Amino acid sequence: MKRRRKSAQHEKAQQSRGHAALPTSTDHLRRDAKQVVYSTELVSNLEGREYRNPRHFMAPVEGATKVYIAGDWPKIRRAYEKAGVPVALISEMRALPGKAKTNDKLNSQPAQEATMAASTTTGWKLHVGPVLPSGTDTDVEYAALAYVEIGEVNNLSEIGDESASVTASAIGDERTRTLKGARTAAVQNLVVNREPLDAGQIALVAAEKAKYTYAFKLVAADAPDEDHTDSVFYYGALVMSARTQLNGNDAVTMRAFNLAIQTEILEVEAAPVTP
């Protein structure tokens, strides 16, 4: 603060003598400021600002002088405000000083964003990790674990929460009402083509013999283009069974693993690739 007052006084003195004003420290920040934008969608007017996906936030960007946020991300806001960095909504973002203005006709055109479309399950990959550490409940913590891909996956079955059905009767109106109870992710019935030497299948067989919850990572193949990442799902599950399906003549020998999901399923949606 002392340096800024001194610069302002010096500038005033120079102007009183008829000289041109010297650039202040604030002017320097406006030219060389490191601004960071947090958004889960593409931003068309970055103008040199640094883009970050808020879902992957771990700590403030070193050297940031101002931050813009799209949406409600209180953890990011608190972290930067604690570091003394001003935070604003992305709607308040304006053109940086010294940046050439683009053609007004071009500005009137809507930003071209990648369009998500329906996709198949082809290319999806399931990975098994270690015993899930206690307290793991964020995608960042899951992503930090070591995983091995499960090979020869034939059917991923389904995953997702479902609420228990709870009924209540009222004598007065002679009706039974249905209420939503506790949520469960149920059981994922995984089927693979039996491969005795596959590291992922070996890990699942070993996990079935244990009573612990293991970490799983399911990587989709749904990136809309090469500039986006695929969606990723994280969850913890008990390996309840490891049965070999023998079948008959001319049939592929398979293994069936029932994964009883114990945790919330965390989804990291497809997002622009961070430079």
Question: Can you characterise this structure?
Answer:
It is built from 6 helices and 14 strands. The protein has 275 residues and is of the alpha+beta class. It has 2 domains: 2-97, no CATH class; 125-268, Irregular (Factor Xa Inhibitor). A hairpin with an 8-residue loop joins strand 12 (232-245) and strand 13. Mean pLDDT is 82; it is low at 1-32 and 100-112.
Principal-axis shape equals: globular
- Bin the helical content: 10-25%
Largest sheet: 8 strands, antiparallel
Order of helices and strands: HHEEEHEHEHEEEEEHEEEE
Topology:
Blueprint: H1 2-16, H2 25-32, E1 35-38, E2 50-52, E3 66-69, H3 74-82, E4 87-89, H4 104-107, E5 125-131, H5 139-143, E6 148-149, E7 153-155, E8 162-170, E9 175-184, E10 187-193, H6 199-208, E11 214-219, E12 232-245, E13 254-261, E14 266-268
Parallel strand pairs: 1-2, 1-3, 3-4
Antiparallel strand pairs: 5-6, 5-11, 7-10, 8-9, 10-13, 11-12, 12-13, 12-14
Q: Keywords for this structure?
A:
275 residues, alpha+beta, 6 helices, single chain, Factor Xa Inhibitor, eight-stranded antiparallel beta sheet, disordered N terminus, four-stranded parallel beta sheet
Report a brief summary of the structure.
With 275 residues, the chain is an alpha+beta fold. Helices cover 19% and strands 30% of the residues. Strands 5, 6, 7, 10, 11, 12, 13 and 14 form an eight-stranded antiparallel beta sheet that branches.
